[in-house]
Amino acid sequence: NYQSFANLQNQKMSKEGEEPQAEEQPKKQMGKVKAGDYMVHLFVEQALKLRVPAEDTIDPMVELTIGPTSKYTRTQEGIGAGARINFSEHLFIELKGMTSEKVRNTQIQIKVKDKKSLFRTSTLGEAIFDLTHIYFKEEHCMRHTWIALTKSTPEDFAKRHGFLKIGLCVIGPDDEGAELDTPEPEGQEDTLIVPPQIVIKYKQVKLRILRARNLPKMDSFMGTCDAYMKLDFMNMKMQTKVIKMDNKLVIWNQSFWFPMRIPCASEKLYLRAYDWDRATSDELFGSIALDVTKIAKGKYPNTFWAHIYGAPQGYSGNVTAKMNNFPAMASHWKGRVLLQIEAETNEESKMEVKGAEEEYCTIGKQWDDETLFQQYSIYFDIIQGVALPDDCDYSVVLSFGDIEFKADCLKRGNRYNLFKKRFKKDVKLPYKSMEELPWAFLYLMDGSDPVCYAKLDLREQRFREDFSSFQWIELVPNRSVSKVDKDYKAGILQIRLQFKTPDHPEMAMEDVARPDYPWKYDKPKLKFEQYHLLVNIYQCKDLPPADNDGATDGFIKIYNIYGDDIKTKVAEDTLNPIFYEQHLLTFVFDMEDEESAPPIILEVWDKDLLTSDFLGRAVVKISNVELGVNYGHAKPSWQKIKIGEGYEGEILVSFNLFESKPDLGQILSIEPRDDEIKDFQIEMNILGLRGLKPSGLLPIRKPYCKFNLKSLLLPSQQGKLENIKTEPVPGGKNATINTVVKFTIKLPINMTMWPNLQSMVFDNLFLGFSQPVIGTFVLHLAKYRRTILEQRKAYIEKLKKFEEQVHAIKEEESEEEEDIEGEEEEEDEEEKEEIEKMKKEQEEDDADTSGFVKLAKYVMDPKLKIRKEVDIPDLTKFSEVGYDPLDVDLDSCPIHKRKHYRLIINDELEHQTHLVGISPFQNVPIYRGQTRGLSKPSFGSKIDSTGQKSSKKNVGEFKCMIQVNQKEALKKYQADVAKRLHNLENIVVQKEKDMPDNTEVKELRTNFEKLKWHEVEKSYERISKVVIRQEKVMVRVYVIEATGLMARDEGSESDPYLIVKMGKQKISERENHQYNNSNPKFYKLFDLEGHMPGNSNLVIELMDWDKHFGDDLIGRTSISLEDRWFSRWRKMENKPIEVRSLYHPNSSVEQGKVKLWIDIVALDERDQCRKWEIAPQPPAEYEMRLIVWNTKNIPTLDIEGTSDIFIRCYLDNNHAQETDTHYRCQTGAGSFNWRMVFPVKLPRKYNDLVIQVYDKDILSGDDFIGQATLDITKLLKDAFQNLRNVKWNKKYHGLMFEGSDMVEFSDEEDKFWVKIFGKDPESGEMKEQGSVQLSCEILKKDAAERNPVGKGREEPNHDPHLPAPLGRIQFSLNPFTMIAQLVGPEFRTKMYLICCMVYIIIIIAAVIPFMVSTAWTNIVFAFIPFVQEEVNI
Known about the structure:
About 20% of the residues lie in helices and about 40% in strands. With about 1450 residues, it is an alpha+beta fold. The radius of gyration is 42 Å and the shape is flat. The strands form 16 sheets. Strands 44, 47, 48, 53, 56, 59 and 60 form a seven-stranded mixed sheet that branches. Strands 61, 65, 68, 69, 70 and 71 form a six-stranded antiparallel sheet that branches. Strands 16-17-9-13-18 form a five-stranded antiparallel sheet. Helix 8 (about 780-820) crosses helix 9, helix 8 packs antiparallel against helix 12 and helix 11 runs antiparallel to helix 12.
């Protein structure tokens, strides 16, 4: 067995001398979040069609809320229905110390609120986004996006409550921020209607919660659970009734009906399970997460079991609450719930809780019928556990739903347990599809406590194969239990697991008979035999710093199951320790199954005086590496070091396996032999140190570098080379060292085994009595060597391609001769492509930058008689710079004084190597601080990408040129180049003689000279000679603007200003700070003087001005001017605008961006350098005169059949003007003749003229009738750009607004009608509510001052004269006349009728008594003669 294993390993070995490659780092994936600081940037642009009550207005503002933090825009007052509201405000919220779980579970809530008063607001609409929904988008943002607003109330959720146009960006650690207010392409939206991109569908979701099984017994006394389920989705809250669990069964039979908006900005819908308690608050014990996309697309089975996951029962705390709230963090199965989901498209969706229909109640009973359950088989082997938390007897439990397998420890060693137990079980389960299977949980039990666990998905192929192999499962601490606090202490278990589903083919008898069939025996059949493993530890690289000076005192601990752990020696003060040690381990496994071998665990530690700090570990499986057998060759490989959520550092190791204990004297050293190493010459041309930050209060004086050459030596070479340090030089934080360090050292031929050069920076204080450490940096020699070899290889390839081009011309010549003889041949297409490719590369080497600047072009508009700009480039790619005054002759104007469009590079220019080339210098970051060993957060500490506390920070740069050469190889390369250039020179000369008039030959000579110069310019020797001589230069900095600046003031935006620094020069623009502006425009030019090379780091800082306290730094960016001066950038005729990110020292999140470009020239050539005019056309003051003449068809709102009409107009909502009131207007034809005078400062971002019509009320708020919004951008732009007065008359409208129906002119040339729209109180729909007659003109300020006019009808009243309005109330003593003026005709008729009726009633009331008395008198007197006659008788 051992011999066959050895043969197999020998077959796996690579050829001798082949370089082992380190495993590639995984590429950055979309959908993966990092721990650290985050920032959310919201740009609120506009709101449209907010729901406003009829006859009312709102005062809207926008609220951004994330967790407990909220930010607000300014309030816009008096907004009517249907209005477009311009906000143009930026809101920022910074989220500190976010874990990856917290990022995934955080939501962004955007609300539009109506601010009724200081303490009372109401929500008009809202939108909710998962933080990851935005973060996973391209550039982590969305721009100029209209979102529909809803409400979370049942009756309003499916209705649209308006639209909000926003930009939203989520920036994580080390991410580049996105500019949100970039120009939009023309025609993207119509300014008067809802943009067409808003396409929203609603689905009516019916989520039926039928029954639950096997819920935990939450009530300890009753042994049951009073369970109910609660829905949590997009601020909607719904819950079932409370049902007591009976015989492990809970029956709800209820339905949640709710609307779902498509597309949806939330990814998960949560159902949370609670236990109702009478005396205390209800207890959450688990939750279900449903995928929103699957619900919308109907991807879930019609009826299915969903599983509740949560924390282990009996524990509490913050972690327990998170596990119960979010299933992805849970460690226990808490029961299953039978669900049924339907999603139908329905614009009239409802939100309510109902009882489930009878048919679904019947389905619930059927799904609980055990006779219909499916047959499954589970096979489980638990063999052993290694690197367990402690030296004690653990047990292992596999939990799958309500099924459990438990194995106790049989034997233990050094944090090792042997279990070696098999479980086989046939079960009946209710699951009808793989989607319904629950997670399996593998627990490491300490008594009854599940201290560690792992989640296993039994749907994975590795658990469903007939011949599944052993798996080593890494556990994680169960932090709800809190007995194990570190991931590396959790342990690793060896298991074999197979889950056989009903659709799995039946096991054939011949399979059972196979000797390698894993489940043939009743017990795990493993032939554990003892071997010996030789662990060869070479070195580590890029270890995380664990000491405050940025270094580590590292050693490696090899986990040993059968004895004490083995430790290497301690390598002090280095992040790249060299060990070259060999250690022997007892190794027990089954030779026939490599997967049975325990993993080799290499832990990396930092040695401190009293304790040691864990740096990470590498877990190596022998099935993944190539083993050396016996004393044979063992091929080393780099193994990544893992801690927490990520990797940092690598270990170079190899392994040899021995059948019997080897003779230590025969084991060959792993150090390279003499024939495997060569002498390499290292030469560093050190320019200096840049941007150093002191470690204490004292400033940096005389820094110097110390190169630990001993860190490069093999153990056998120790003492043969001394460390080198530079001399302390004055210069402070930007010291220029300007010296050359050379040394020769023996290094392996195999560059994979090259160590890194550990170096430190010190300061020399108090005559050398104090030398504090500034920081540490590492030089990756292998990387520099590979770069040199790649450059040389690329140059040889260019020479070869050029040679092919020469031959191609020769072939074309022969083809022409053959063609004369009448023979035709087809061209070699591949050869042609190669020539074109070479030409393209040569053109790239000599990049033409003339297209970076485009001058503005104009034509004369024959109709408007104005200069009109044409051929405007794409403003998403070019930035407008400067302006062309009207009184300047453009033909004779110098180019640098002209308005032009300059190319924008949305990145730091040094990243655009195709434009500026690669810098000849190495800019090596210097770090101080630690990422391991911080038990408590210190000042300035943060959470790094691996989830660890970190105080590591960049404290400067080491700048140099490095050459790593091998003497013989260099000579061979130089000879090859010289030979090729000589041959090509001869061929080109011969071609010039043979074909002197051939254009291709002329191009050949030009390209050949460029090719030679290209090599010379890049040569290390030439640049080394140049940098020795300092040259005075002039640096000219053009700062255009800053965008997306993080707010430093509480409750408002920052008040930014610029500081430009280079060396000891500092220019502050504090006096020119801008108030409350997160996107300030600067258009500033700064000239500074410096030396090349020298103290030439250009620093641009954005500061926040404070009146009473110290100014705050918003962010800064630093530019290495030396890199540009000594690169291809210097040859660029016109520099593009670059967009640079701003960072704050205490945050890894971008704080904004600044747009600028730089020119550098020799100081004696400064007069020849163009000084571009970059200031835009200066703002100009104008006056807009708007006259409100009349109205027509305005509805009457008062019960009397009249309206008290007045008009409110504004460009800026905070500076609105109103007419007087036309009281008791009965016909809707109001008369005003009212002039409004608006001072206007141009240019403006938004140019909406709003006309609102109100009905004035004395005892209550004014009633809003309607409004119109006119976009007068063209008028204002014409007036501003052409510096002229503009009158909006019929002729001008026809020329400027051709085809537009925004206004309607009648017979009068200077007056036009604007239609007013408002909300119908009965239908709630927008409809026409009449028209307003206006006239408008824009005047320059000087013209307005020469010809002043009064507001309203005040003096001076002219141009035009405004007469008193007609149709107003006239006082009269005649009551009928007053009544006719005060009430409308219908109401007046009613009044007259009522008066008549009252008059009649009064008359009747007065006449009836007289008539009665008269009648009675007549009756009496009629009877008197009759009485007398009777008496007489």
